[in-house]
Amino acid sequence: xxxxxxxxxxxxxxxxxxxxxxxxxxxxxxxxxxxxxxxxxxxxxxxxxxxxxxxxxxxxxxxxxxxxxxxxxxxxxxxxxxxxxxxxxxxxxxxxxxxxxxxxxxxxxxxxxxxxxxxxxxxxxxxxxxxxxxxxxxxxxxxxxxxxxxxxxxxxxxxxxxxxxxxxxxxxxxxxxxxxxxxxxxxxxxxxxxxxxxxxxxxxxxxxxxxxxxxxxxxxxxxxxxxxxxxxxxxxxxxxxxxxxxxxxxxxxxxxxxxxxxxxxxxxxxxxxxxxxxxxxxxxxxxxxxxxxxxxxxxxxxxxxxxxxxxxxxxxxxx
Length: 319
Hints:
single chain, 319 residues, alpha+beta, Uridine Diphospho-n-acetylenolpyruvylglucosamine Reductase, domain 2, Uridine Diphospho-n-acetylenolpyruvylglucosamine Reductase, domain 3, Uridine Diphospho-n-acetylenolpyruvylglucosamine Reductase, domain 1, six-stranded antiparallel β-sheet, four-stranded mixed β-sheet, 30% helix, globular
C-alpha cells in the first residue's frame, strides 16, 4: 500500500539522512547535495539527486559503489547528460559523475598503419575526435559533433552516418557487478544497435580503440563536413537529448514521425523539432512530464499510421 504524501516525504528525508551519514564515511571529496539534474542534462529538465559526486579514478569509484551496495543506497552513473530524460521529481540516491581526472587519452600500441588508443570513460567524445584529428588518426570522423562521454558512447554504441563506436573498439575495461575490474575484448560484448549488451549495473572505465593513420587535412575535412550536415539538419540551437527514438529497421524514425504529421507538434514547452522530427526539443521551460507526454503521443500516432512502435533511444530516469 502506498503511503500518503507526508509519509513519502518522511521516508525520503530519512533516506536523505542515511545517504549523508554514509557518504561522510565513503567520500571526502565534493558533494553537491539536492542538486538539480537539469543543470547536468542536455535536455535541461529534471529534478534533484540527493547527492552528486565526482570520483577521479577507478579506486574512488569502486569504493563508492561498494559502500552504496553494502548499505542499500541506490546509485547511477551519468556521463555528459546527453542521452537521458530525468523525471521532474528527481531520482533517489547518489548520482556519480566521472570527474575530469577520468578523461585521459594515451597511446598503448603503434604500427605503421594503426594506433591503439586507450581513453578513460569520463573523456568527452568531442575531445577524443579533436585529439585524433590533430594526431592524423582516422576512424572517428563520424562522431564529430556527437555529445557525451566515451563511457556513454560505449554503453549506447553511439553512431551516425552508418558507423558505430563498436566498429573501432578493441577492448573495454569494465567494473562489473561483482565489484571486480576486468578487461573484455570487443568480441566478448554483444554490441547491437544503440547498446553494448552488457548487464545492467556494469560500468565502462575505459575503452581501447584502433585508429588508422591518415592525412590530417583529409580527416579534418571529413569532420567539418559531418559538423556541417549536423548544423544543417539538426536543431542544435535548442536543448535536446539528441535523437529521441531508435531507428526501426524498415525506415528512419524521423521520417515515420514526419509522415505522421508531427513536426512542430507541442505539449507545453516540449516540441517535435520542425527541423528534424526525431528530436524532441525543450523550447524553454519544458518539464520532463511534458516531454514524456509528447513521447507517448508520437508513439501512438506513428503506431496508428504505420503499425511500428517507436522505442526511445533516450534513457528515462525516474524513481
